[in-house]
Design goal:
The complex is a heterodimer of chains A (about 220) and B (about 250).
Chain A (H helix, E strand, L loop, with lengths): L1 H26 L5 H23 L12 H134 L5 H12 L1
Helix pairs in contact in A: 1-2, 3-4
Chain B lengths: L12 E3 L2 E2 L2 E2 L2 E2 H20 L9 H21 L7 H18 L11 H23 L17 H45 L3 H6 L1 H37 L5
Antiparallel strand pairs in B: 1-4, 2-3
Helix pairs in contact in B: 1-3, 2-3, 2-7, 3-7, 4-5, 4-7, 5-7
Classes of the chains: A mainly alpha (about 220), B mainly alpha (about 250).
């Protein structure tokens, strides 16, 4: 029983193997035992593929014209709706976002340039005032210097004048004293001479003789 | 079947709807269109709800994407092109979100369906043609007659211009579609290598490191591609709109 069953099973297997060998001998003539079994597997998958393509009416799926109508309809519906969403909602929205940003940037730049010009104005006023103050300060300093100089000059003049007066007074006084002294010199000389003569000669000389002699000696 | 790299692009019905014998089912593709629109508009709405003069981080992401598209459109189509800003912005955000959502595991990539990218490209070209004729009448056809071309060459040049104009919706849609498709297939294939090599035992696990590194690198690349393709789509939209606004300028 079991032997016949095994035989019955082996016969279709042999037939199947024979079929595959005859089929594959065209494709792979130099096939050994292993080589024939592998293409047999391939053949099975190929028949499987054939089955699958029957499912899609037997043509390469993208060229299966039976699906074209449905694809066209659904493409028209989906792309149409997508186009409407894009043109009515998305494009205006992103456009307005970009425009708002652009405006905002332009506005900020304007504001920045306005502030910058204000700052520049402030700097130039500041510098102008600084220059004014400096020149004013210089003028005041010059004036003060001039005034001080004039005052000093005047003082000097005054002091010089008073000194000159004092010098002149002193000189006249000195001249007076000198004159007086010179005038006294004759009397002293006469006195001294009369005293000297008296001592030397032991006799008195007249005053007239002595003054004549002093005068002669003074010449 | 799990390793089938095209399985991820299968459109499965979630809610079957049929109108007049035509299948308008709500599918996983529809679900991720809704998700892309919802995620993109939700993000933009919520991040800008503060309307901050000084933006928060997320708000500045929204503003950056706005200004990114605005400067792209202004450079591409001049200041008169700004009336198309909602359109270009919607296209960019929708495609970008759909691409990025598609990068999540198990998520469906809306832009990997040629019909979706083709519809978006036709929307752009349709806008260009309609606005061009509305604004310039038949003067819009000057677009096909470049300046300074000798008379003898004119028929040839005009033919080339018309062909290049007609190929625009195709190139615009196929570029986006093929980039997303190829990227996702490549990722799936390399990730599949990791799984199938890992099942082969110790040696296989060692060998699986290479495709794993590749998958990680490709994931990074795909995020770049997801952004880049949305960018390229938006840039080309700007250029085509420029043709509608200034038809005789090139």
């Amino acid at each position: 029983m079991s032997a016949t069953a095994a035989k019955a099973e082996s016969i279709p297997f042999k037939i199947a193997q024979a079929e595959t060998t005859t089929e594959t001998q065209d494709a792979a003539p130099a096939g050994d035992a292993h080589g024939t079994t592998a293409p047999a597997g391939e053949l099975h998958t190929e028949t499987g593929v054939a089955h699958g393509e029957e499912h899609g009416s037997g043509v390469f799926p993208p060229f299966d014209s039976s699906t074209f109508a449905s694809q066209l309809l659904w493409l028209a519906i989906t792309f149409g709706i997508f186009y409407l969403i894009m043109s009515k909602v998305i494009v205006p929205r992103i456009g307005s976002i970009l425009e708002t940003r652009h405006d905002r940037i332009a506005q900020d730049l304007d504001e920045a340039s306005r502030l910058k010009s204000e700052a520049d104005d402030a700097i130039s006023t500041y510098e102008k005032e600084l220059a004014d103050a400096r020149s004013k300060g210089n003028a005041i300093a010059n004036e003060a210097r001039e005034a001080a100089k004039a005052k000093a000059e005047a003082e000097r003049q005054k002091i010089e004048e008073s000194l000159n007066g004092k010098i002149a007074a002193a000189e006249t006084r000195i001249a007076g004293i000198k004159d007086k002294a010179l005038a006294d010199v004759g009397a002293i000389a006469e006195e001294t001479a009369s005293a000297v003569v008296e001592q030397l000669l032991g006799s008195k000389t007249t005053k007239a003789e002595i003054s004549a002699a002093v005068k002669a000696a003074g010449k | 079947m799990a390793n089938d790299p095209t399985h991820q692009f299968l459109v499965n019905k979630i809610v079957p709807i049929e109108i007049g014998g035509i299948d308008f089912s709500f599918t996983n593709a529809s679900l991720f269109m809704v998700a892309s629109a919802a995620v993109a508009s939700g993000f933009l709405y919520l991040t800008t709800s503060q309307r901050g003069i000084i933006p928060s981080r997320m708000q500045s992401v929204s503003e950056m994407s706005y200004e990114f598209i605005a400067s792209m459109l202004r450079e591409g189509a001049g200041s008169s092109g700004m009336k198309f800003f909602p359109m270009v912005f919607s296209l960019f955000m929708f495609i970008l979100t759909a691409n990025l959502l598609g990068m999540m595991p198990y998520f469906f990539t809306v832009t990997s369906q040629i019909i979706v990218t083709f519809a978006l490209a036709l929307f752009v070209i349709g806008t260009v043609v309609l606005y061009g004729f509305y604004k310039h009448g038949f003067g819009f056809l000057k677009l096909f007659v470049p300046h300074g071309v000798p008379g003898a060459l004119l028929p040839l040049v005009v033919t080339i211009e018309i062909i290049s104009f007609l190929s625009r919706p195709i190139s615009l849609s196929v570029r986006l579609f093929a980039n997303m498709l190829a990227g996702h297939i490549t990722l799936k294939v390399f990730a599949g290598f990791v799984a199938s090599l890992g099942a082969l035992g110790a040696l296989g696990v060692g060998g699986a490191i290479l495709p794993l590194i590749m998958t990680v690198a490709l994931t990074g690349l795909e995020f770049l591609v997801a952004f880049l393709q949305a960018y390229v789509f938006a840039v080309l939209t700007c250029m085509y709109l420029n043709d509608a606004i200034h038809p005789g300028s090139h």
